[in-house]
Design goal:
The complex is a heterotrimer. Chain A is mostly helical. Chain A contains 9 helices and no strands. Chain A has one domain. In chain C, the strands form 3 sheets. Chain C has a 3-stranded antiparallel β-sheet, with no helix packed on it. In chain C, strands 4-5-6 form a 3-stranded antiparallel β-sheet. In chain C, strands 1-2 form a two-stranded antiparallel ribbon. Classes of the chains: A mainly alpha, B mainly alpha, C mainly alpha.
Chain lengths: 219, 320, 709
């Protein structure tokens, strides 16, 4: 693969990851958000595969396959089940409205760019230069966690956070050891399953999965 | 070529793109309506229908509502004049212009805004609720679109080091790989949203509606008739053409002449017409599949495109 | 004797003549005398300013004039720019004031709706009388204060020592306060405005005084020459303290957020020609002070000074334009627009400071030039707009846009001139505001290429600044489409507006002068190139720049690629418009436009109450920015007595309060009141106690002297 070709594909894939993250803030339908998660998972796998080609390492291809299976197939399937059981199709009223969320996303992305400048300066290469994308996705994930009400959106925010960390790891270290990636992935799966159960219990107790309902537990 | 010959050739190029845009704009609108009609299973009125409408309007009596002032009669003139000036200074056929540095991308954007303002004032001047409503909505959308446009301009001119239109086009011609850079792609998306908002297309405004609750552009021009309406219709078609033409030549300038020799100019005219036709048809197809949004979801769209503009600028800062 | 000296002489003698003649002249001649002398004083400023911008220098020290020391004056190109600005505004205002303060007109009386309120159902109400006119802006005090105010403003940029500057600054504040209060007997709201203005302006004075005193103490001298020489010896901490203090002080005069609260009150309650002077000229002197002390005397500073100014500027621009875009009171709208424009100037100054700290003098020069150019442009269009608002107020007694309308046919000259100003303020070509915003944007967008690798702070703040400037421009356009479209076009929304008639000749002449300045600045901005270069030479950190190349018709930026020709754009618009009009005339074959009823959806005749008002026009924006503006709604439903299901009338009121003011000031005022209550205990009326205070004071001074000696 030529150098410029690699850089362009890398930039496109990273741009796609950021784009899907932003679109998740924009869309209200939870089903559409899950579809976006699938796309993001595929892009992450592509990123891993791309690094694999670059570094010619088989291990990275295995990681890519793992990412594809977990993030593009298994987790979305779990989420779809939660969605089907809950019957809540939309993130009705986020704490921060969509327009403001998008503007906040713009600021967070700028911040990510600014903050990762010293990191990029350590080892300037096309790969590290895309590092801000990973950081931005992490920040956006946090933002979703903070501002969305539905339990499912919380899971989405958590997954976004994890995707951001994965992307950052790929970009910063040119791939992580297989064992580490495997461990992290299993953790994520476990957390999502736990949250699924939790959401189901919440629905049984409160009739909805609005997190603000949890306040009642305090009294 | 001598200096005077160069100026004469550049003048010819300017005259050529004026003629092309004035003559072609109604045809472009006709083409878009035809594409839409076919996709919706209708026969359509034919590509030449907007021109026939214009001819018909020119023969009709012009009317002015009671209580309106000179602003109402001047607005179509100002709208058309501002669009003509943009058409003359934009690099549609050749990057060589008769007078260097008359207007850059900022000036072009502001001239577009001037046209919007002229129509909005005319809408208010009619003294009807519809006119005021259309004016209010049109300027709100335009105001919220402004940051996006300027950030897209910023991103485009940052990589060239100049906001001069011809410089941007020439820079893209010399290094075509720039087009696929993240900054340029993000700016293109932001610019596309702006074109939709400024030209009043779906999902921001429905150009074919006269339903009170949804119309923006049509509400402002409701009181016009005869030659005044013809001017506005022509100017609106030209604005759409100019916006699509700018989008085409800023992001895919191939085919534009870098000299003022007759043959490249002729080729550039053909390529430009084809590019516009493809873009227009694409927009028409897109419009078949979307519905008009509520007015208060439009800020979401514009905030999204603002984000793209900002990302484009920061990409040009950080990835440069 | 130099031209500058002559100009300053004209200012001084004109002011003295103004005060005496204004006080002595019979009431019939008073308006004429005060107006002419104000214009003469202004002309002196224009003369001195032009000479200084042409490259002349001048200085003067008069000992024993002030109680504390010598009065020192010096004029350089930076002073010259502001002398010219203030002087030109004063010339137009002087001519205008002859008609405005002359007999006739409905201004001065209580307006129909209280400012900031919107009454959608408010019909035409009782006509305000012209009573009490002579005791308003035409009173002896107000008329003789006018030339003095102008002279004080003109001498501020000429001051060359701390004490001179402070005395003149205070003179300017006091005379303007007198003028703001001119109509206090006619409207209760004037007193409130005066109180706010006095409070804010003196808080600002204290900040400036503290800053300059610290500076002078550190530099070992109070003349500007001594300050300039000694600024290098100050510790970085002291320098920053001085900068922050003078930024707060001068910023409060400039009306930056959150110290802008006096602007909407004072500007809307003062007589309109005074509003024009304050908003166009006095506010710019805040910018002058910031540039003079920050960039000349302190000689520029670290990166974060620039960032501070840039941030405050961005917030001011956005907040000002948002409030202006939803304002319903015409003069309040213009006042908030002043905050917006000051914000834009501060963005220019702040970015210039940032790039100067980075050592990029070319960009710093362009941005500083943009800020000064915008101050000049703002002065031109804001004078015109306030004078236009004054004409409307005089003709109708109204400032409420919701009750205006239909003036285009009743006051054609005022309408056309207001349109020129609105075009400038909306930053659209071929207006003059567009030119300086263009230079500002060029300076900002070239930060990527010109600096090579910008610092992180610049890389984060500059794109946001561009976004802010763009949103400000967009909302500014909405604001002035509303002000012009709702205020002047369509049909009148009240009987008073329907009965309006054109202003007297002098008022039209004053507005025409301002409009001519707008046109000149819009079409030939390149002529400002050489003077701006001289101006920048005064500022050590941006000294090298020659921002605008004077290249005839096109405006070219030196050092960075950017050119635009406002003249050719205007010419193109004219030619295109004329040829289209000629074609349309041929097509029309002499058939005139028929005047017909507007379409009323097939219903009955449209009456003026069905027109869009300023409130309804701004409604989409109010909703979009709901989270920032937090409008207050108030709906009154009155049913018929017979049945509560049949509604007789619905009354809807919307108020958009100034949220910053409502959030920030009440706690401050409450604290001040508490402190005042507490300190009342010190003064219980006992003479013995007062004498004891003096004794204790004397003792402590002696002890301090004894210890330190």
């Amino acid at each position: 693969m030529t150098d410029t070709g690699y850089v362009q594909i890398l930039d496109l894939v990273c741009g796609g990851i950021l784009l899907t993250a932003v679109l998740m803030l924009w869309r209200r339908e939870l089903a559409a958000i899950v579809r976006l998660l699938v796309v993001q998972g595929v892009l992450l796998a592509l990123l891993a595969a791309l690094m694999g080609v670059r570094e010619s390492s088989t291990e990275l291809f295995v990681v890519a396959a793992g990412v594809l299976v977990l993030k593009a197939i298994v987790l979305p399937a779990v989420l779809r089940r939660v969605l089907r059981d809950s019957g809540e199709a939309r993130e009705a009223e986020p704490l921060v409205n969509v327009t403001a969320s998008l503007l906040a996303a713009a600021l967070l992305t700028l911040l990510a760019y600014g903050l990762s400048r010293p990191l990029v300066a350590l080892a300037p290469s096309p790969t590290t230069r895309a590092l801000p994308v990973g950081l931005a996705v992490v920040l956006l994930g946090f933002f979703v966690l903070v501002t969305r009400r539905r339990a499912l959106s919380q899971v989405v925010g958590f997954l976004l956070l994890d995707n951001g960390i994965t992307a950052t790891a790929f970009l910063a270290t040119a791939g992580v050891p297989l064992v580490v990636e495997l461990g992290v992935s299993l953790d994520v799966l476990l957390v999502v399953l736990v949250m699924q159960v939790l959401a189901a219990r919440m629905r049984l107790s409160f009739g909805r999965t609005d997190l603000d309902g949890l306040r009642e537990l305090r009294d | 070529m001598t200096a005077s010959g160069l100026t004469a050739g550049a003048l010819a190029a300017t005259a050529g793109q004026l003629a092309l845009v004035v003559g072609g704009a109604p045809l472009l609108v006709g083409l878009m309506r035809q594409v839409r009609a076919r996709l919706e299973g209708r026969a359509g009125a034919g590509v030449g229908q907007p021109w026939r409408d214009l001819r018909k309007l020119l023969g009709k009596e012009a009317i002015r509502p009671d209580g309106s002032s000179w602003v109402f009669t001047m607005a179509p003139l100002l709208l058309l004049a501002s669009t003509l000036v943009i058409t003359a200074v934009a690099p549609f056929l050749s990057t060589v212009s008769p007078v260097e540095g008359v207007a850059d991308l900022f000036a072009v954007v502001s001239l577009l805004m001037l046209g919007t303002v002229a129509l909005a004032l005319a809408g208010l001047d009619t003294g009807t609720a519809f006119g005021g409503m259309g004016a209010s909505r049109a300027v709100t959308v335009a105001a919220l679109a402004e940051p996006t446009i300027l950030l897209a301009v910023f991103a485009l001119s940052a990589r060239v080091g100049s906001s001069n239109l011809a410089d941007i086009v020439e820079s893209t011609l010399t290094t075509p790989a720039q087009v696929l850079s993240p900054a340029s792609l993000l700016a293109a998306v932001a610019f596309a949203v702006v074109i939709i908002a400024e030209a009043g297309r779906l999902p921001v405004d429905n150009p074919a509606t006269h339903l009170e609750l949804t119309m923006i552009h049509e509400a402002m021009v409701l009181e016009y008739a005869g030659r005044d309406l013809a001017m506005i219709e022509l100017a609106s078609a030209m604005r759409l053409t100019v916006l699509l033409g700018l989008g085409a030549n800023l992001f895919m300038p191939w085919g534009i002449a870098t000299t003022v020799a007759p043959l490249p100019l002729l080729g550039a005219a053909v390529v430009f017409a084809v590019k516009l036709g493809v873009l227009g048809a694409g927009l028409a197809v897109f419009e078949v599949f979307v519905a008009k949004w509520r007015l208060f979801r439009v800020p979401e769209l514009l905030a999204g495109s603002f984000l793209f503009g900002l990302l484009a600028v920061s990409a040009s800062f950080f990835l440069a | 004797m130099s031209l500058i000296g002559a100009g300053l002489g004209v200012i001084a003698w004109g002011a003295i003549a103004g005060v005496t003649l204004g006080a002595l002249a019979p009431s019939r001649a008073r308006a004429l005398v005060a107006g002419v002398l104000t214009s003469v004083v202004g002309a002196g400023g224009v003369l001195a300013g032009l000479a200084a911008l042409g490259g002349q220098g001048w200085s003067l020290t008069v000992t024993d004039l002030l109680p504390l020391g010598a009065m020192t004056l010096a004029v350089d190109a930076l002073s010259g720019a502001f002398l010219l600005l203030v002087g030109a505004v004063a010339v137009a205002v002087g001519v205008y004031s002859v008609g405005y303060t002359g007999p006739g007109g409905r201004h001065g009386a209580e307006p129909d709706a209280t400012s900031g309120d919107t009454t959608a159902l408010a019909g035409p109400s009782s006509e305000p009388g012209a009573a009490g006119h002579a005791e308003g802006a035409a009173s002896r005090t107000a008329q003789s204060a006018l030339p003095l105010f102008v002279a004080a403003m003109l001498l501020v940029p000429a001051a060359a020592s701390v004490s001179t500057l402070l005395v003149l600054w205070e003179l300017m504040a006091l005379t303007s306060l007198v003028l703001v209060l001119a109509e206090h007997r006619l409207r209760a709201s004037v007193r409130d405005a005066g109180l706010w203005y006095a409070g804010m302006t003196h808080a600002g004075l204290v900040a400036i005084m503290l800053g300059l005193v610290v500076f002078a103490a550190g530099a070992g001298g109070e003349s500007f020459t001594a300050l300039r020489a000694g600024s290098g010896d100050l510790s970085p901490g002291t320098r920053s303290l001085v900068f922050v203090l003078i930024f707060i002080g001068f910023g409060s005069k400039a009306g930056m957020v959150p110290l802008h609260v006096w602007l909407p009150r004072a500007h809307s309650e003062a007589p309109s020609h005074v509003s024009a002077l304050m908003s166009a000229a006095m506010v710019s002197l805040g910018l002058y002070g910031l540039i003079r002390v920050g960039f000349d005397l302190l000689g520029g500073g670290p990166h974060w000074w620039g960032l501070l100014v840039l941030t405050v500027g961005g917030l001011s621009a956005l907040y000002g334009v948002l409030q202006a875009s939803v304002a319903v009171d015409l003069k309040r709208l213009l006042a908030y627009s002043t905050t917006e424009n000051v914000g834009l100037m501060l963005i220019g100054v702040g970015a210039a400071g940032m790039f100067a700290a980075d050592g990029n003098r070319i960009l710093a020069g362009v941005l500083m030039a943009a800020a000064v150019l915008h101050a000049v442009n703002h002065a031109a269009f804001k004078t015109l707009l306030f004078l236009g608002a004054g004409s409307v107020l005089r003709a109708t007694g109204l400032r409420d846009l919701d009750l205006l309308g239909g003036l285009a046919r009743r006051m054609p000259v005022t309408t056309a001139l207001f349109a020129v100003g609105a075009l400038g303020a909306a930053a659209l070509p071929p207006g003059n505001g567009f030119v300086s915003e263009w230079v500002l944007l060029q300076g900002l967008i070239h930060s990527v290429t010109a600096t090579g690798s910008p610092s992180v702070v610049a890389a984060l703040s500059i794109p946001l600044a561009v976004g802010v400037v763009a949103l400000t421009a967009g909302l500014g356009m909405v604001t002035f489409v509303k002000a012009f479209g709702v205020g002047f076009l369509a049909r009148p929304r009240s009987t008073v507006a329907a009965a309006a008639s054109e202003s007297p000749l002098t008022m039209r002449a004053g507005m025409f002068l301002a409009a001519a300045a707008c046109a000149g600045l819009a079409l030939a901005p390149a002529t400002a190139g050489a003077p701006l270069t001289r101006l920048l030479r005064v500022l050590p950190s941006v000294r090298d720049g020659a921002p605008l190349a004077d290249s005839g018709i096109a405006l070219r930026l030196a050092g960075i690629a950017g050119s635009m020709s406002p003249l050719l754009i205007a010419l193109g618009l004219l030619v295109a418009g004329a040829s289209v009009a000629a074609l349309a005339r041929r097509v029309a074959q002499g058939r005139p436009r028929r005047v017909a009823q507007a379409w009323g959806s097939g219903g009955a005749r449209l009456d003026p109450r069905m027109e869009y008002t300023a409130t309804s026009f701004a409604e989409p924006l109010t909703r979009v920015f709901d989270d920032v503006l937090r409008p207050e709604h108030d709906i009154d439903v009155t049913p018929y007595v017979e049945s509560r299901y049949l509604i007789e009338s619905v009354r809807f009121r919307q108020r958009v309060p100034d949220r910053l003011e409502a959030r920030l000031y009440p706690p401050l005022l409450a604290a001040a009141t508490r402190w005042g209550q507490w300190s009342r205990r010190l003064a219980n009326g006992s003479v013995h106690r007062y004498l004891a205070y003096g004794f204790v004071g004397l003792l402590s001074v002696l002890i301090v002297v004894g210890i330190s000696g």
